[in-house]
Amino acid sequence: MAETKESAPDFTKVSDENIKNFNRDEQKKEDKKWGYDLYPERRNETYKTTLKNIFMGKEGTENIDKFKCEQNVWKCINKSPMVKLMMGALKSSGCAIDIRRHISCEACDYSVSGGYDPMLNQIVVCQNVAKNEGLVQGVLTHEMIHMFDYCNNDLDFKNIDHLACTEIRAANLTHCSFMSAMIQGDASIFRIKKAHQNCVKTKALCSVLAVRKVTAEEALAAIDRVFPKCYNDLEPIGRRIRRNSTDMHRAYLEAPYYGYDV
Ligand SMILES: [Zn+2]
Fold this sequence. Notes:
By secondary structure, this protein is mainly alpha-helical. It has one domain (59-258). It contains ten helices and three strands. The chain has a three-stranded mixed beta sheet with strand order 1-3-2. Strand 2 and strand 3 form a beta hairpin. The longest helix is centred in the middle third of the chain and has 23 residues, at 160-182. The protein is globular. The structure holds zinc ion. Residues 142, 146, 167, 170, 207 line the site of zinc ion (ZN).
């Protein structure tokens, strides 16, 4: 009777191709860990349209999306007091924005509307998600806060405490500032404060989890560690902006007093 031979892997046959595949897989794992897989165009892979998304009317319009996105970026840079303030603050900190070099409209995963790529010092505006001027303004302001922190605060995005801190600041100065006005009507000052802090924590948690493969517990622990310090750091906007108020314009007008060149 013939012996059944276990086919053992033949290590003499490790080809260049295998090594290449291995390296590519490792790179993909690494990209995923740091959130790079959310921005396919960042990896020199052009965004692949899936048939399903075309049927849903989501894709197949990349060029039009890019054109519209770039127009919205241009409008925000010229009109939005928040974006202009952030650009002035970046310039005064020695990190002036060159629109062509530092802002890029790209197709992204539908779970994100924008991002900041510290390796290239570039803001990504997701042209397939942030589809109107208001959303683009939100993305630009949020990501410019990360850019500002990277420029001024020795930010290390691989350090989860640093990431948590800059996400707390971005949520505090942009997203949740708008929220606080909506809940102001019926709440006591104490409850507003509490609700606002909860908004910042929740938003920062979502942001951290969107880009980093960590558990919610790990992300929350980091947020709690740095919360008091980062929540109270209002640079460079100087205040929490309320919706339908003149706060945005006031912040912009007062920027020169903080030494920002707007
Ligand atoms: Zn963020």
